[in-house]
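Lab notebook: predicted structure, single chain.

Context: the supervisor wants predicted structures on file for every construct in the current expression panel, including those that have not yet been purified. This is the next one on the list. No modifications to the sequence; it matches the entry in the shared construct table.
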Amino acid sequence: MAKMLTYLGSKSQAHTLSTFHVLQFADENFAREVMQLFTIGLVQLNTDGTPAVDDAGNFIRTYTNDDIMEYSRVWTGFIRQQARGNYEERLGLTNNLDPMTIHIPFRDLFPKLGLNNQYVGDKYMLCSDLPPRSFLRAGEIGYYFYEKIKRDVHHSPFHFASGATYRLLGSSYIPESSTLKVVNRGSTYLKVFELNQTSALFRKLCGKGNCTTALSVTLDRSLPCFGNECFIDMIQVVKLTGKLYYEYVRPACINFPFYNSGSLTVNLQTGLLQCADSRMAGAVEACCSPTSALYNSCMFSGERVLHSTAKARCNARSMNLCSDLPTSFSRGNCWNYNGNYWLNKTCSVSILVLPDGKIAIESNSTSDYPQEMNTFFRVLWINGSYPSLKENSCGAGLCSIVGQFCRCNTFVVDKAVFTSIPTRVDVLSLLNVGGVPPTIFDNGTYTLETTTQDGLWVYQASRTIDNTTIFKVQDDFGKPLFLRNLQSIVYVRTNNGFFASSMIYGFRNPPAFYDAVANIGDAMYETEAALDHYIYHKNTAPFIAMKLIQKFGVSNPSPRFINAVSTAFQTGSFRFSDSSSSSTDFGTGIYGDLGATMAAIILDRESRSVVLDNDSSYGSLREPLIKVIALMRSLEFKSSFDSPLIVLKDLQAKIGQMAHDIPSVFSFFLPQYSPPSLVQASLSSPEAMLLTHNIGLMNGILSLVKYGYV
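Prediction complete. Output recorded below exactly as produced.
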């Protein structure tokens, strides 16, 4: 699929710019076809499969070209895994068997606005909201991907949980879901965080007596820190005994790319200065004194800390955070770190605004290139108004004019959306930031104050409804969600500072899965979030229902039939009642349950009624390959003793169809195809597209019957 739809090896615009010095957008093919062909289709549908129309009677498109461009950036970075020793491959060393992996340097790291003005990452909790040392915390599991966590760890590359989860690495100390910011990965140069055997975390991972090496361990209760565990802000890999390692898998969470708490960081290898959110563990300390500079003495290779932790570590050495990159330094026992260092300087994020309202985050890494070479993405401007060179002279002085762009400084205002208890509908429609499950925090931090009749739980950290309040609710697809009572707005400000009078142009702070260091795990979470945009779309149920009904023998199902199957897909349940009034239930009650969906198809009266066989428009044509197989079975075809292997050779050319030999991503025929004789009757016959090969099919059938071979 990745090769046919050309997103294999697709690279972000930022990567092609920095590597090849050319402007090239991400490949858009798969981003288009996954919507058109596999999930939501071209026009909006009612539950019964009929097209929805606007007030003028026109069909309503499900997506735009801008949606395609935004989603195309989700599908960057996918590459084949390396070949392995126990892998059987006939075509050299290309690994076409294992799932693809994500190469982070190819990945697009900027926010992505998707269908229905929803960002990829909306309703995910903020990473900065996680309590300190969340790698020791337990809490409710699965409020985002609650159906996915039931998978065995072998079948899911990442275990989606809100509590602390550790995955067995075995004898390898290289993390699989996070990036190790070191120069050399050789064991001689790596310092791994080794747990003390008296640590509660060690006992939990190791079990009683000899280590049991469970494939995945999720904490069922919060654990106290021990020793150096109490002095770190993040963790990647922990060592137990000998050569036994576990990796901490951080739960899915997002960051805001715009913030007021910016502090400057510097990369020692490149000298590149970058603004980072000081609330995140994105760099390490760079400590200076009048006579010396000590960059860091880390707890483990690749460690990163909060800005406040970096400052405290420097003060403990009677030093201060460096204001500039010093000329002399000592990097202690983690000399091979090649990430960023905190400096004692504040910073803010500036943007470039295109004439169409798209923005780009200015970065020093692209300062040598024209402004149009930046990665521009959509944002949701309040009331659709934004600084424009043509319309308002870049906000009448709020922003500076740079060519065709407006360059603007930013300021973030966070406030509560509700000040009193809202309704469930309002919570789902107006809140876009996820909340950390209250059970993860220390006892007494949050209390369940109220539950409402419409299924809303209200957790408060104070006596009032404020921006720390967390609501628990179940959405329209049955997913339980925690949502924080927060609205984060990015305003354009003047160069001299922020004033209330300049709160004219603003947009919703867009979520992004990446912080100062991009990880494979975050890219996987982002991909899952994008897939959920397709799966949990109101078009998906009727679209899938129509396609499955057609594949199971009814080319022109009635709206009633489609509605029944669509409802079974949405509710995850189907009840069949026979003539004796007894009933049988199918499904798990979870959205998208295919057991319930298939039962609704097979047991519906339009599938079982023999009366409909008299209707010439009922049913469907058999596909050519199915005709051949059915004929061979009816003739009780058997292979000869000297030719035991049955070879169906060149059937694609002879009859127009062969398994695993589709001519294009559109398969062998289009689901909405109508032959000329059925167009006026508004009937479809998808398989009729292959009737042009009917002569070859009939000749083959006659040859098989008469001579025993084709």
